[in-house]
Amino acid sequence: MAKVIVVTSGKGGVGKTTSTAALGAALAQRNEKTVVVDFDVGLRNLDLVMGAERRVVYDLVNVIQGDAKLPQALIRDKRLETLFLLPASQTRDKDSLTPEGVEKVMGELKKHFDWIICDSPAGIERGATLAMRHADIAVIVTNPEVSSVRDSDRIIGLLDAKTERAERGERVEKHLLLTRYDQVRAERGDMLKVDDVLEILSIPLVGIVPESTDVLKASNLGAPVTLADSRSAPALAYLDAARRIAGETVPMTIPGEKRGFLGKLFGRRAA
Amino acid sequence: MSIFRFFSKQTSAPTARERLQVLLAHERASVGHSDLVAKLREEILAVIAKHVQVDGDKVTVKMDRGENVSTLEVDIEIPLNAVRAA
To answer: Is residue A51 part of a domain?
Structure first.
């Protein structure tokens, strides 16, 4: 049975696209057929983060408008043969996404894939509501920072009201993915802690991704974080998060917490 | 807990946490229907305008959303000759 995941946040720049690419690659590495779909029409970037920007011929809007067939628009990843990308249109505006069109494309994707991961645009307008519309699972990407937490709260409200599942009286499975987390600053009291954010948003935690230079490095290279260096701290966090999404029980670790007594007393290792 | 924290000055995360808790309590309560305090402000002003000619510049409205109680402070200057003939 295909599962539809929306990666969403409300606020921009918190790591939706990075997380979509990393989780998509991590799920595909489990040998499950995965497609990442960019819903950010007009400002596509998932192609760039996936390293497929030079291979885009057709996009989501072309498929919706019947200019291309779905298999023509899907781009197979060069590193993982179970991973595909459906890019967004760069030239059209967001109004070219229609509810009927998106429903048709999602229905077709469900026949061919195990996981469909929708990368939502920022905001709460059409692109964002259509990206979450068909979701079974929502990954809410949040930074430990006041405006991001507030916007996530708003998005959680929308997930409970404007999705197909909500309208059928069912629930979208919601997961909090905390990104750009800095354990040292949180311990010092200058950043919201994991427990603070969890208590405020009261949804279950699926992963804690540390602030790391590896994320920028991966996007420079055009590789999902989990493929660029699968042993880096953010990659490990995303790989664990993907296993949890797939239903495995994996103990939660807070990145950067493995310091002993001496480490705590005498300064902190730069991660 | 680090021994540094003991000596360090006030931290900012607890403030962030408190501000969010208060703000979200209000935003969650006002989903679907508009904010009660904002509505009260508008209606109170409308009632006063019925009887008194209110000069927009002479009206100060202050709102403070607190954890358990919110306060609405409406300060209106009413000149002697402003009373409308009713």
So the answer is: yes
In a domain, A261, yes or no: no
Residue A15 in contact with residue A34, Cβ under 8 Å? Answer: no
Our count of domains for chain A comes to 1
Measured in angstroms, the CA of A154 and the nearest CA of chain B are apart by 8
Q: Is A208 helix (H, G, I), strand (E, B) or coil?
A: strand
- The reported pLDDT for the residue numbered B58 is 75
Q: Which value does ipTM take for this structure?
A: 0.76
CA A49 from centre of chain: 12
What CATH number is given to the structural domain containing A40?
A: 3.40.50.300
Question: Whole-angstrom Cα distance, residue A212 to residue A166?
Answer: 36
DSSP codes, A55-106: G--S-HHHHHTTSS-HHHH-EE-SS-TTEEEEPPPSSS-GGG--HHHHHHHH
Tens of pLDDT, residues A164-185: 999 999 999 999 999 999 999 9
- Chain A residues within 8 A of B19 when measuring between CB atoms: 146
- Asked if residue A142 belongs to a known ligand binding site, the reply is no
- Minimum Cα–Cα distance from A185: chain B residue: B13
Q: Which two tokens stand for residue A20?
A: 């979509």
DSSP for residue B82: G
Which of these, A109, A70, A62, A69, lies nearest to A88 by C-alpha position?
A62
With respect to residue A167, please indicate whether it lies within any of the assigned structural domains: yes
Say whether A78 counts as a known binding-site residue. Answer: no
| Distance in Å, alpha carbon of A157 to nearest chain B alpha carbon | 8
Provide the shortest C-alpha distance from residue B6 to chain A (in Å). Answer: 10
Rounded to two decimals, the pTM is 0.83
- CB contact A193 to B (< 8 Å): yes
Is A267 a member of any domain? no
Q: Which of A11, A124, A146, A160 to mutate to test the interface with B (most CBs of B within 10 A)?
A: A146
Just give the CATH number of B15-77: 3.30.1070.10
- Can you give the residue range of the structural domain that contains A86? 3-117+124-246
pLDDT tens figures, A114-147: 999 999 999 999 999 999 999 999 999 999 999 9
